[in-house]
Amino acid sequence: MTVEELDANERRAFLEWRRNLARLEENEKLVLTPFEKNIDIWRQLWRVLERSDLLVMVVDARDPLFYRCPDLEVYAQEIDEHKRTLLLVNKADLLPLNIRQRWAEYFKQHDILYLFWSAKAATADLEGKKLSSYSMEDQNTPDLDTKIYGRDELLVRLQGEAEYIVDQKEALRAREDRKSSPTDSVSIRPKHVVVGFVGYPNVGKSSTINALVGQKRTGVTSTPGKTKHFQTLVISEELILCDCPGLVFPSFSSSRHEMVACGVLPIDRMTKHRGAIQVVANRVPRSVLEQIYKITLPKPKEYEQPSRPPTAAELLRAYCTSRGHVSHAGLPDETRAARQILKDYLDGKIPHFELPPSDTDSETYLEETTGLEGSDTEVAATTVHCASDEQDEEIGQADANIGHLLSDLESFNLGSGVSKKSTKKKEPSYKHHKKPQRKKDRSWRVGNDGADGSGVVRVFQKPAVNLATVTC
């Protein structure tokens, strides 16, 4: 088809797809997260999928399922049934070994091709630096399921997976050619394989490309949306990498605040900061936040659960108080504090991670997360989303007492300490009480003999001076 026909078909299909999403929102009463609506960005994705033999979806190791898009894997299979999708779990050095083992078991159970990888650690290795804040002691583990691959190992693995896919396609094509023409069947294998990188913004695609190439070839920034067009990078005669711009895919499961907290939407452009901070407060334990920022969060009230997470207002005000962030009006500068907390959350200063959906046993999770090294990671491991047996007993007693407290509060006025039943309810007064006005002083008026009702103006005339009486 011509270029004009291709453009018209793509626009027609894209418009129909957006109409179907809008119809789902309206009819099914679903809330759809913000997603990319520029067709030019989607065209970059389509071209990368068409060119690639192996599709690599880069995800964040701290919450892989949030960044994974199963619909994209299905779409790749529709283009070519032999095309496979590999889940490159970036920032895997932020996870302890036992958590990586849990995710490895989950991926194998669901038949997901995956690899653990750290672009930041690979870049530091190329520059001859050592990461002090990241735990890399398990990088050279003999277990291939939980191993964090290095640069050379990842390139070999990617090339091997892509060549396997190409060999399958060539074998199928050769069989079809033999059926059609048994005598003249010559299959020409391509000289190189293409590996495409896709995923959400700010998951480390550009950093991964730079680490694999060995030099800075793509711009890297914490603000999502740096890469605008896909680019092809030649690694060797047999391997070519293709980098796609970060795309925000539509989703019904997450919220806008979660997308801001995960770095998918720009932090500097957020308008409601408390929602994203509440996501952080719900995921990170209270003790971890207090130890990292050296702050003291308000304790829960007697009628509240002792294990409840802090509210966004409590966290922001405590942070502003400790750092001295004050706005022009003299109030705590919560916007500045929220941006800094979210950036620390994304950079890994605040340790956190999610477990696979099947892992719900808190006691087993507590035992397995005690092997973290470092002061911050130890606190995170021993306090993330779990409580000991003694705490469970205390919470149970607190829940029993809460019922009595709430029943007492219904008939007790906290402000005056008097029962509501004994007090009379005052009816609101709707009368407008005006301030009494003073009578106007009209003594300056004089009588008017003309009887026309108009006021008379007094005329003051200076007395005449008799010069003869004045003596020098």
How would you portray this structure in words?
Among the domains are: 33-175 and 190-252, Rossmann fold, CATH 3.40.50.300; 255-358, Conserved Hypothetical Protein Ylqf, Chain: A, domain 2, CATH 1.10.1580.10. The chain has 472 residues and is of the alpha/beta class. Helix content is 43%, strand content 8%. A 7-stranded mixed β-sheet has the order 4-3-2-1-5-7-6, sandwiched between helices. Residues 42-250 form the CP-type G domain.
List keywords for this structure.
472 residues; alpha/beta; Rossmann fold; Conserved Hypothetical Protein Ylqf, Chain: A, domain 2; 7-stranded mixed beta sheet; 16 helices; 43% helix
Q: Could you tell me the CATH topology label of one domain.
A: Rossmann fold
Rg is 36 Å
Net shape? globular
DSSP strand tally: 7
Average pLDDT metric? 76
- Main sheet characteristics: 7 strands, mixed
SS-based class: alpha/beta
Assigned CATH superfamily of one domain = P-loop containing nucleotide triphosphate hydrolases
What spatial order of strands do you see in the largest sheet? 4-3-2-1-5-7-6
- The CATH first-level class of one domain comes to Alpha Beta
Stretches where pLDDT falls below 50 for ≥5 residues? Answer: 361-400, 409-425
Query: For the terminal residues, how far apart are their CA atoms?
Result: 122 Å
Strand content: 5-15%
SS element count, helices: 16
| Name of the CATH architecture of one domain | 3-Layer(aba) Sandwich
Helix content: 40-55%
Q: How do the helices and strands follow one another from N- to C-terminus?
A: HHEHHEHEHEHEHEEHHHHHHHH
